[in-house]
Design brief:
alpha/beta, D-Maltodextrin-Binding Protein, domain 2, 2 domains, six-stranded mixed sheet, three-stranded parallel sheet, 10 helices, 14 strands, 22% strand, globular, Bact_solute-bind_prot3, amino-acid transport, transport, L-glutamate-binding protein /L-aspartate-binding protein, Solute-binding_3/MltF_N
């Protein structure tokens, strides 16, 4: 029989001290989680907001899976949360949002974050926060090839459609009032409905971010009938949206995005969604990467462009 010495009093005290220190450190680590990460840890669920028809950013494929360029970033963020919380089996739920509902549903805790086609601007920064930028767009018009429309001046007195709840709606109304263009502005709830208004002749032009216009054009019966025209009325930065003041979650999101952009992973995603055929119909956005996007990938940031 092996004769084992019992710990001395001092040794026992030391062992208990280390055990207590470990317990305190464990509690401290648990208390370090704040905001959305704490909510996810407690519930075992992360709820991801997404768009239903913002091709090629965030939309449904034929199997009702959420896919797209922005969804690639969303997936990276979910993976980063799983790793940070050591929860590889974290339950992931998806919630469709629209331009009008996305901020309200985020702030009432219906979902946890959204990567779609949401512009980071100073007005929205009053009520929500944004991750590092994932895409930079120019606001332009989609028109029929034979419509003889090349700029906003050609739309005086005509019907123009733009999606409700977007920065494009705000900007179009500002220009219309400022320049007395007397345009009649139609504002359906989503991009696909806006394009239908254009396609059926109820509007002469569709004002929106150029990449979204390319996505809607790709779904047309004959995409070659439609052209994106005009100098950009503005440049805007898309970011993933999260609740205001959630510094811990924002740091995690920014790191996941910056790592993808500086490693070349984001460029691969860009080429997949903007320069090659994409589901569900194999359409090609045919948008080569811009100089602004190249600059962004080299130096990730969360700057608003207004």
């Amino acid at each position: 029989m092996i004769n084992q010495k019992k710990p001395t009093g001092k040794l026992t005290q030391l062992i208990l001290s280390f055990a207590l220190l470990g317990l305190v450190q464990s509690v401290a680590n648990a208390e370090e989680l704040t905001g959305t990460l704490a909510k996810i840890k407690d519930s075992g669920v992360i709820v991801v907001g997404h768009r239903e028809s913002s091709i090629p950013f965030s939309y449904y494929d034929n199997d009702q899976n959420v896919v797209g360029y922005s969804q690639d970033y969303s997936n990276l963020i979910v993976d980063a949360v799983k790793k940070e919380l050591n929860m590889p089996n974290l339950q992931v739920k998806y919630l469709p949002v629209t331009s009008k509902t996305r901020i309200q549903l985020l702030n009432n805790y219906t979902y946890d974050f959204e990567c779609g086609s949401t512009t980071n601007n100073l007005e929205r920064q009053k009520v929500v926060d944004f991750s590092d930028t994932i895409y930079i767009v120019g606001t332009r018009f989609l028109v029929k090839n034979d419509g003889k429309i090349n700029s906003i001046d050609d739309l005086k007195g005509k019907n123009v459609v733009t999606t409700a709840g977007t920065t494009s709606e705000i900007r179009l109304n500002q220009i219309n009032n400022r320049d007395n263009l007397k345009m009649r502005i139609i504002t359906p709830k989503d991009h696909s409905d806006a394009f239908k208004a254009l396609e059926t002749g109820r509007a002469a032009a569709f004002l929106m971010d150029d990449a979204l216009l390319a996505g809607e054009r790709s779904r047309a019966i004959d995409p070659t009938q439609w052209t994106i025209v005009g100098e950009p009325l503005s440049y805007e930065a898309y970011g993933c949206m999260l609740r205001k003041g959630d510094t811990q979650f924002k740091q995690l999101m920014d790191k996941a995005i910056a790592d993808a952009q500086t490693s070349g992973q984001a460029l691969e995603s860009y080429n997949r969604w903007f320069t090659q055929p994409v589901p569900p119909r194999g359409a090609n956005m045919d948008l080569e990467i811009s100089s602004k996007m190249v600059e962004l990938f080299a130096a990730p940031n969360d700057n608003a462009l207004d």
